[in-house]
Amino acid sequence: xxxxSQNPRHKxxxxxxxxxxxxxxxSEHNRLYWxxxxxxxxxxxxxxxxxxxxxxxxxxxxDRFSAExxxxxxxxxxxxxTEQGDSAMYLCASSLAAGVVSYEQYFGxxxxxxxx
Amino acid sequence: DAKxxxxxxxxxxxxxxxxxxCNHSTISGNEYVYWYRQIHSQGPQYIxxxxxxxxxxxxxxxxxxxxxxxSTLILPHATLRDTAVYYCIASSYxxxxxxxxxxxxxxxxx
Lengths: 116, 110
Fold this sequence. Notes:
Chain A is built from no helices and 13 strands. Chain A has strands at residues 5-7, 10-13, 19-24, 31-37, 44-50, 53-57, 65-68, 75-79, 88-95, 97-98, 101-102, 106-107, 111-115.
């Protein structure tokens, strides 16, 4: 399968614990995006990378959240000191950008986080 | 990015065409109309996009009005597997991010 993959698919954690999610994009894609989706709502943008550079972060991304893409391939999203309000589906997407033009995004299956 | 307005839900009989409308009256000249769908418990899936001409691919057709203030996604022969939430997004071609609304929940029934 050459699509976007995310691990783990489900994570249950206790409030106050740290969690880390991984996203592996489509191999030739240079842009990688993180979104968060809560029940009944559309996905909300969190941050994106072009290669290894993090180019934009949403106001939704508090300082407890950090994302990295160290070699411009896979990415990790870490949440420190989790809160119940962090419970959501975390989606990763990738796209191919050529110059200033970015083509359609391809999404992974998501990681569902439950904070108890 | 321009705001879009979609009906909350629609029904369609299997085998019939599903026509999903979207209003984007404040769309600007460099913004495309993108359609994605999300089947329950999966990530969104790209369907089609267009600027001002009608577009067709193996999944759907996109009809954009001449003034570009609205569009319609057409699934020509809906199947039960097309049951999903459909999102219409207006965004520039060099967009960094997609701004999703709440979409249209399409239920295809036998």
